Structure formats: structure tokens, C-alpha cells
Amino acid sequence: MAKREIGSRKEIIADNDIAIHVSNLSKSFKLPTERAFGLKQAIFNRIRGVKGFKKQSVLSDINLDIKKGEFIGIVGRNGSGKSTFLKTLAGIYYPEKGEIIINGSLIPFIELGVGFNPELTGRENVYLNGALLGFSRSEVDNMYDKIWKFAELEEFQDQKLKNYSSGMQVRLAFSIAIRAKGDILLLDEVLAVGDAAFQKKCEDYFRSLHGNQTVVLVTHSMENITKFCDRAILIEKGKIVLDDKPKIVAKAYKNLWS
Q: Residue 1's pLDDT is what?
């Protein structure tokens, strides 16, 4: 039976240094193949044994332990299953088989700006997004100026969000998201936020996390893997094919195209 639990279980995590425990994790999706128009077609398809979908395996028998304070990178080609793995850790997808145990509070940096309303102003969206992250109004009040200063968008606070560029929206979303404090951070290409100067600011922030929080980074950037990570994992066709030092994994990733 598939399980996803918050909090350690002694019989599974004997070592209290483990932040994430993944055991025999598998995940698949049903992809539609033939649509039934009406009851007659549905009955005919059933008689012919046509299910109307095919099963696509995305993750297969993933086993992994991530230690507290570890900065781990996950790489793989498009369609390899790395983002599905991250979303399963985040609880966006539920495991089909296997078990995930999260030992601590978890903050996903996966889809920045989810919940933003383009018809509201930047100011209103800060309070809206803050509420979605679990902050009280007084907590948002206390961090409000810091959010805008980090995003470098102070002059746009009272403009409607629909007038922001996509880059401005992501910068604002990122600046709000980093206020959420968790033991474990899940990042999906979030280091590619904004222009070069803003990316430098983001990199400085992530360096400050090193050793203090557990970080799982999914990325195509081998530079970020070798720059930030203590350890890296290569996923290919839904399986972990290499778990090693960042430079070794980065080289193996590049060799996939040779």
C-alpha cells in the first residue's frame, strides 16, 4: 500500500538525522487513448477490451534517504521523472506504491505565484499569497517592506498584477515564498528567477541555507549542481541510475547525449 506520512517512524527511520525517507516509490499516470462518445460507444469499447487509456510508468522503485541539512540535486532529461518525483515529495501527487516519510516541516518552491490574482494590486496579492502560505495579517505586515525590497519592485506596489511582466510576478512570488520557514525546501528550477542581478541575490540566499536546512533541487543546470549541492542524483526513465558526488553526476548527465 502506498503511504505518505509526516513525521518520523522509529521502525523506518532509526537515524534521527534523516529528513526524507523514500522506499520502493512508484508512480504512473493514465493517458487517454480513445474517447467514447455516448453510452453505445462506451459499451462497444468495453466489449472490445478498449480501456480508453494507457498506463504510463513515470517512477519505478525509487529508494532514497536524504539527511537533515543536506543540499541534494536531482537531474535528468526531460520526461525522466524528476519533477514528478519532486511533486510526489511535496504531496501534489500521491504515490502509487511505496512509502514517503517527511521528518520535519516542508516548503515547496515548485509553482511560484500560485494563487495570484491578476485583477488585484501587487499589495493585495502579497497579503493574499501570504495567507495561502499560512501567515497572519500581522506577520505579513511585519515582513511587507522586506518583501518589496528584495523583489526590487517597490514602485509597483499599487499597480494591478496583470500589468506586471512575467519576470516581475515571479520575483514578487519568490520574495514572498522565502519568508516561509521550513525544515525542508523543494526547489524546481527556481534559481532561474529574474535577471542576472536578481539571480545573484537568489544564489546568496540559497548559500545561506547550506547546512541549516534540507534542500532538494531539481535542475538542468550542472553549474548549480556543482555550485550548491553536497550530493546529486541522476534519474533516467523513472529510475535512480546514479547517486554520487555532484561533479560525477554532472559528467554522467552530460554523457547522456554523447
A: 44
